[in-house]
Amino acid sequence: MISVEDRLEVEAFLFKEARLADESRYSEWEALVDDDMHYWVPLQESQEPDSDQVSILNDNRTRLATRIRQLNTGVRHAQLPPSRMRRSISNIEIEKTGADEYVVRSNVVLYEFRRQATKELEVWPARVEHKLRRKDGELKMFSKHIFLLNSEGSVRGLSFII
Amino acid sequence: MMNQTDTSKFPRYDKLITDARVHSSLYTDEKVFEDELNKIFRMGWVFICHDSEIPNAGDFVRRNVGREPVFAIRSRDGEISVIVNRCAHRGNIICQEDKGNTKALVCQYHGWAYDTKGALVDVPYPGGFKGDFSCHGLERLPLVDSYQGFVFASFNENAPPLLNHLGRATELIDRAVEMSPVGRIRLSGGWVRHQLNCNWKMLPENDTDGYHVNFVHPSFAQAIRSNYDEAVLDDEEGLKSLAKDWGNGHTELFFSPSYTRPLEWFGCAEDRHPAYTKALLAAYGEEKGGRILRDGPPHAVIFPNLFLGEMNIVRFEPVAPGVCLHVHTPMYLEGVEDDVNKRILRQSEGALGPTAFLLADDCVIAERAQNALQGKGRWLDLSRGAEREVVADDGVISSHLTDETPNRGFWRHYRSVMHPGAPTSGVSAVA
Ligand code: FES
Ligand SMILES: [Fe+2]
């Protein structure tokens, strides 16, 4: 069991992370990320991170930095203007995996209004797994894995932070 | 020239397509789309799969040929059949899985069973079945052929041989597989299905459009140093890459003239993969091996639905006039160290698919174009660079990278397929 304080702190992190992603505040979002970050949207539910199977997205820290840099250029057409987004997070289960480390499993439904081209509402339901650690008194994430329900179906452009 | 079918109910493709322009209704009209599914995706050759996807007896993969659900399956004798995924009884889906292995094909609805070539072998409660087993097999595509392991099929038993359709573009496929020291690729990485709400023809057109790169991909250029800086992002005088029309609708952006050192196309130092370098030189000799190492893979479209996207293989799938899929997998090489295929995989994830540094931007631009072309529409100008094209002895047309030579090549062939009797493609088929 984790303490109520731990739970509140982890949930607050998740909500803040979601809000910064929803609002396309790329650099503030990136400040939540630790140096060994793995940001991943696999193609299959049972995929291993290091397999030879292609992923929809598979960023180590360096590639994630490049992604943020590209979004911050202001000329990334895929997010010009940025999608309007709101995501709801529920079914949060927190497991303490070390003195200051947590694995957090949640269900997420992200609503995206695609302003750049088709101006439709797109819905992105997913199972999400965060790995967090406390560093210098603050939580940082060093892993975020997003298992889209339709990852093996047809997937629309996904150029925002999911 | 006259042809047999009544063309009056079809759009006048000969009027809607000239060498200098095409009409936007070709991207939006439901009648055009239905007509393409028939004339291009049923009557012509379509890329289905690579034989490395189904190496063993009983292996199958599901695919769509236009709107027709099919699957490719290997039998015990090694033959690959392409079979319509529809039961001969009352039409249910036979293969529900995207891929797998099976000894027999059993319909879930009433249990009719077929062998791996689609022949009916068992009907439950046979007392009531008065038909002839041999008349109730699954529908097989009459033509299936392959080149370098790339399997193509056609619903049209009278289609000319595959090699006629590929024409000189066999050279493009050769260049792709020759990236492997043993001349074999392996498509085992899984396929990502990226949906774009635009007409399918924007995919082959954009994938070999060398003009858009500086405008659609400035964020890529600013954020990432890459081999594309030299190959596609230079100014008009500096660009050495070429746009090419190989005939029969096959087109290419030829980046190789931009590369000056080995493995530049791979985005790494020339001594980064010594075992791979050595293996290529040993397999093909100093001259050809050295050229392969410097030139890199093709960036080329094989009409209508295959994109040799450097170290990726892409299938285009039309879904509706305004919806299509860009489906990609990394092009793994046989006979190389794992770190080479690892690099191919990571580059594939970077370049293609819904989250990619490149394709995500193309996607938005194409969807905007689809939106703009609604309604009455307009003419699209394709005349750029027509006066500075060079026709080589083999008939392949080359021009400046930013010229609309590939678009013109695509549409010229398209017109000859959609409106038989109209002037054919600039390059004749293999003699
Ligand atoms: S529909 Fe297949 S057995 Fe009846
Ligand atoms: Fe592009």
Describe the structure.
The complex is a heterodimer of chains A (162) and B (431). Chain A has a single domain (4-148), classed as Nuclear Transport Factor 2, Chain: A, CATH 3.10.450. Helices cover 22% and strands 44% of the residues of chain A. Chain A contains three helices and seven strands. In chain A, strand 5 (121-135) and strand 6 (138-148) form a beta hairpin. Chain A is globular. Chain B is an alpha+beta fold. Chain B folds into two domains: 46-154, 3-layer Sandwich (Rieske Iron-sulfur Protein); 169-418, Naphthalene 1,2-dioxygenase Alpha Subunit, Chain A, domain 1 (Alpha-Beta Complex). In chain B, the strands form six sheets. Chain B has a nine-stranded antiparallel β-sheet with strand order 13-19-18-17-16-15-14-23-22. In chain B, strands 5-4-3-6 form a four-stranded antiparallel β-sheet, with no helix packed on it. Chain B has a three-stranded antiparallel β-sheet with strand order 2-11-10, with no helix packed on it. The A-B interface holds A 41, 43-44, 52-58, 63, 66-67, 69-71, 73-78, 80, 116-118, 152-159 and B 98, 188-197, 216, 218-220, 222-224, 325, 328-330, 332, 341, 345-346, 348-350, 353-355, 357, 360-361, 363-365, 367-368, 371. The complex binds FE2/S2 (inorganic) cluster and fe (ii) ion (FE2).
